[in-house]
């Protein structure tokens, strides 16, 4: 009872404004803002490295396609394959909702590989620049999830619990969207400081490795206070899908961080 009295009542309409044929949602606006900020940050990195800023246009296209397609397919295959295998025509209907951050991460890894091969850029050098604004974009996307009243956690008695009334909830829940948004924002700050401390010459793979450790390491622990979302696992599973997918990414991060000590720093 005390938890309910101290809880935050959250009943925000996810639609910012509705013009009939045109609906603008907070989620979409925050999502787009993240990519816009990423463009300017990566442009700064390219300019500082003496590379053509025009090249960032192409990199942005690869990144957006990789992130959106990866996030969509990640949601379909990791979380709701039981539904989509019977409704194959809906797989590409992104506007119906359903994006998974782990799938987005995998999609970006593949997209940057293709970009690096085509434009003759070192893969790890490019990833080191991409992950810095990606952490910031992740924070904005999680705020979008909050505005949508989605992917929140289990019930809590903590005074900052949110009652998501828009979804019909009556008890306070962990606002895991805010937990993740804050962790991503802190990760962005750490990566930015490391980049500046290294004078823009961090060994290849260093920032990429630290990003994976920070983002998916924190994600692993936050998942303990979330409900199981994947239809591929039962509620009795010790780990949920988000944790299972985070483990290899954290291990990958440790590998790249350690091995970066022997890597070059030139573009």
Give the N-terminus to C-terminus distance in angstroms: 58 Å
Report the order of strands and helices.
HEEEHHHHHEHHH
Biggest β-sheet: strands ordered side by side in the sheet: 1-4
Counting structural domains, the number is 1
Q: The biggest beta sheet, please?
A: 2 strands, parallel
Give the number of helices.
Answer: 9
Q: How many strands? A: 4
By helix and strand content, what is the structural category? mainly alpha
Q: Could you say which overall geometry the principal axes of the C-alpha atoms support?
A: globular
| Radius of gyration, CA atoms, in whole angstroms | 19 Å
User: Are there runs of 5+ residues with pLDDT below 50, and where?
Assistant: none
Bin the strand percentage: under 5%
The percent range for helix content is: 55-70%
Write down the overall mean pLDDT: 90
Q: Any descriptors?
A:
267 residues; mainly alpha; two-stranded parallel ribbon; two-stranded antiparallel sheet; 60% helix; 5% strand
Care to describe what's here?
- With 267 residues, this protein is mainly α.
- The protein has one domain.
- The chain is 60% helix and 5% strand.
- A two-stranded parallel sheet has the order 1-4.
- Strand 2 (15-18) and strand 3 form a beta hairpin.
- The longest helix is centred in the N-terminal third of the chain and has 25 residues, at 55-79.
- The model has no long low-confidence stretch (mean pLDDT 90).
List the helices and strands and how they pair.
Layout: H1 2-6, E1 8-10, E2 15-18, E3 23-25, H2 26-48, H3 55-79, H4 81-84, H5 101-119, H6 123-147, E4 162-164, H7 176-197, H8 206-222, H9 241-259
Parallel strand pairs: 1-4
Antiparallel strand pairs: 2-3
């Amino acid at each position: 009872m005390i938890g309910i009295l101290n809880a935050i009542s959250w009943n925000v309409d996810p639609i910012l404004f509705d013009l009939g044929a045109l609906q603008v949602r907070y989620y979409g606006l925050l999502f787009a803002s993240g990519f816009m900020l990423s463009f300017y940050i990566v442009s700064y990195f390219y300019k500082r490295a003496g590379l053509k800023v025009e090249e960032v246009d192409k990199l942005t296209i690869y990144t957006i396609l990789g992130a959106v397609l990866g996030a969509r397919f990640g949601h379909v295959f990791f979380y709701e394959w039981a539904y989509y295998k019977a409704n194959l025509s809906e797989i590409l209907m992104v506007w119906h909702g359903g994006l998974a951050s782990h799938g987005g991460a995998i999609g970006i890894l593949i997209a940057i590989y293709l970009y690096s091969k085509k434009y003759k850029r070192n893969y790890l050098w490019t990833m080191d620049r991409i992950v810095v604004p990606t952490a910031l974009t992740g924070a904005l996307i999680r705020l979008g999830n909050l505005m949508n009243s989605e992917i929140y956690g289990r019930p809590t008695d903590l005074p900052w619990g949110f009652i998501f009334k828009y979804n019909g909830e009556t008890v306070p829940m962990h606002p895991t969207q805010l937990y993740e948004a804050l962790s991503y924002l802190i990760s962005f700050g750490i990566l930015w400081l490391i980049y500046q401390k290294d004078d823009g010459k961090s060994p290849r793979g260093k920032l990429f490795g630290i990003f994976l450790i920070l983002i998916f390491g924190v994600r692993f622990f936050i998942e303990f206070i979330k409900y199981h979302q994947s239809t591929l696992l039962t509620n009795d599973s010790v780990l949920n899908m988000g944790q299972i997918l985070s483990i290899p990414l954290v291990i990958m991060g440790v590998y790249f961080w350690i091995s970066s000590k022997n890597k070059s720093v030139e573009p």
